[in-house]
Amino acid sequence: MPELPEVETVRKGLERYLQGHTIVSISPKRKGLRFPFPEDLNEAVQGKTVLSIERRAKYLLIRLTDGLSILGHLGMSGSFHFVSTKEYQPKKHDHVLFYLSNDTIMVYNDPRRFGVIELLQTGEEASHRLLHHLGPEPLSEDWNVKVFAQTIRNKTGPIKTTILNQKVVVGVGNIYACEALFMSKISPRRSAKSIAGKNKPGLRAKRLVSDIKTVIQQAIDVGGSTLKDFQDVEGNAGYFSHQFKVYGREGKKCLRANCNGTIERIIQTGRSTFFCPKCQS
Q1: At what angle do helices 203-221 and 4-17 cross, to 10 degrees?
Q2: Which of 8, 118, 214, 222 could be cross-linked to 239 through a Cys-Cys bond (beta carbons 3.0 to 4.6 Å apart)?
Q3: Which three-class secondary structure string do you get for 46-112?
């Protein structure tokens, strides 16, 4: 599933190709994806201009005139791409076509159909059923070591599964959790509260907050990671997978200088965790 850096990469692409254009019509090719499409989807957006494209966690928010927003989620395999109206050739799994005023079509393709396309009133995100529970953004100033330490101080579960909790911090998916913990030299098995510190944030918590921000920003800078399905709006793969230090490297030598450890894989809450047992403690 695309994580925050991949969704941010798509957001930037939509900003380049979609912002400022008017939606002439929307043509859904099925009744819905993960959820049914709004019955008035086409009528609601016809003639509205795209003001901006924002992101909340792994959700895209396409801001339109008249106080309306399109809420999108790529699910496990969703993608947007643009094609001229004259050159469009229908492809399998093209589920929604957005006809634009510049004679292009924004196509939403989703083989696994776990994506989301909904409507909401701009400004009502905090009460939306898919967004109201979300924690702070990892790259925002609102998420800092003090906030993080207070959030995890009483959490006894492993730190790896804790930072995957979208109520703790949003968008830190499995890949980037593994990479950030390696960068911080923290074992994924260590309890969350053990790194929080008692009266003030502990050194491990400080390192982890800093390294999560670094890893996510690095991934955004190179277009995210592609393991199987992800591509940006121009069809390009993400390149952060070429920089993985632990993810997917089970049985290989640790890449940290002066460490002769071997990367191991364990399962935590049904997901693979990759780490070096020698230099992560």
Answers
A1: 40
A2: 222
A3: CCCEEEEEEEECCEEEEEEHHHEEEEEECCCCCEEEEEECCCCCCCCCEEEEEEECCCEEEEEECCC
Looking at residue 265, which CATH number applies to its domain? 1.10.8.50
Q: Write the pLDDT tens digit of every residue in 146-192.
A: 999 999 999 999 999 999 999 999 989 899 999 999 999 999 999 99
Whether the Cβ atoms of residue 152 and residue 187 lie closer than 8 Å to each other: no
Q: Is-contact 37 102, C-beta < 8 A?
A: no
Statement to judge: residues 158 and 247 lie in one domain: yes
| 149 in the same domain as 119 | no
The answer to whether residue 249 sits within a structural domain is yes
Hey, is 22 helix, strand or coil?
strand
- Tally the domains of the chain: 2
- Give the integer Cα–Cα distance in Å for 14 and 233: 7
- Active-site positions? 2-3, 58, 271
CATH label of the domain that carries residue 65: 3.20.190.10
Task: Identify whether the C-beta of residue 206 lies closer than 8 Å to the C-beta of residue 172.
Answer: no
Q: Per-residue pLDDT tens for 235-260?
A: 554 434 547 899 999 999 999 999 99
